[in-house]
Specification:
222 residues, Tetracycline Repressor, domain 2, elongated
Length: 222
């Protein structure tokens, strides 16, 4: 009986959390982040304000939880498994990374827009946005380091510049400009990003890596 009651309490707590997050997302979008109060979110979710505070602490806590849920909905474990599975295949790893980013942005573009715009007026959210972008850049930099050691990067392309390119072109602003503003489909943007990033980042697949000293000693025949 105790096991059943404990499981039932967990299910009820999870359902309450889902309702609060759903209400927060809905009111952030309809009323604006600044105008949506904890009291309004609680009323919409059918719980007390104290329950919201206990579960999330603040509106910022609700928004962070919503962004974390976005990553789960975009299947972050799938990306992590794919990057491991395709070790030694930079092009496939790139494709998996871009596919995850597109899923992530498509599933929560309303929340990304809220976080991006509100960060200019809310110091805590500005820090959150900057930290999120720093982590994204750092993760992509680690992937780029693997590709550099494998000799996959195009000649003359430094690890830093390659990371800059991947970070900028796979970011939320590019998604917003092409999909939201210009009406591209997710599939069109994904295909274009993969093709162009492959061209910019990697040496041609058929081109062997020739050490610098060897290239310098090669003399034309004639």
């Amino acid at each position: 009986m105790r096991v059943y009651q404990s499981e039932r309490r967990r299910e009820q707590a999870a359902e309450t959390r889902r309702r609060i997050l759903g209400s927060g997302r809905r009111l952030f979008g309809s009323d604006g982040y600044g105008n949506a109060t904890i009291e309004a979110i609680a009323d919409d979710a059918g719980v007390s304000p104290q329950t919201v505070y206990a579960g999330f602490g603040s509106k910022r806590g609700i928004l962070i939880a919503l962004l974390d849920q976005m990553a789960a909905d975009a299947d972050l474990p799938r990306l992590q498994e794919a990057l491991t599975k395709f070790t030694g295949n930079p092009r496939r790893q790139l494709a998996e990374q871009i596919a995850f980013n597109i899923r992530f942005y498509a599933g929560g573009r309303d929340l990304i827009e809220i976080a991006r715009t509100v960060s200019g007026t809310e110091p805590d959210l500005a820090v959150m946005w900057q930290e999120g972008e720093r982590r994204r850049y750092e993760a992509q930099g680690k992937l780029m380091a693997v590709w550099r050691r494998a000799g996959a990067l195009a000649d003359g392309l430094t690890q830093r510049k390659a990371t800059d390119l991947l970070w900028a072109l796979s970011g939320p602003d590019v998604f917003r400009l092409f999909v939201v503003e210009r009406g591209w489909s997710r599939q069109q943007l994904q295909a274009w990003l993969i093709a162009d990033l492959e061209r910019m980042l990697f040496r041609p697949a058929h081109q062997p890596r020739i050490p610098v000293l060897q290239r310098l000693t090669i003399q034309p025949r004639g």
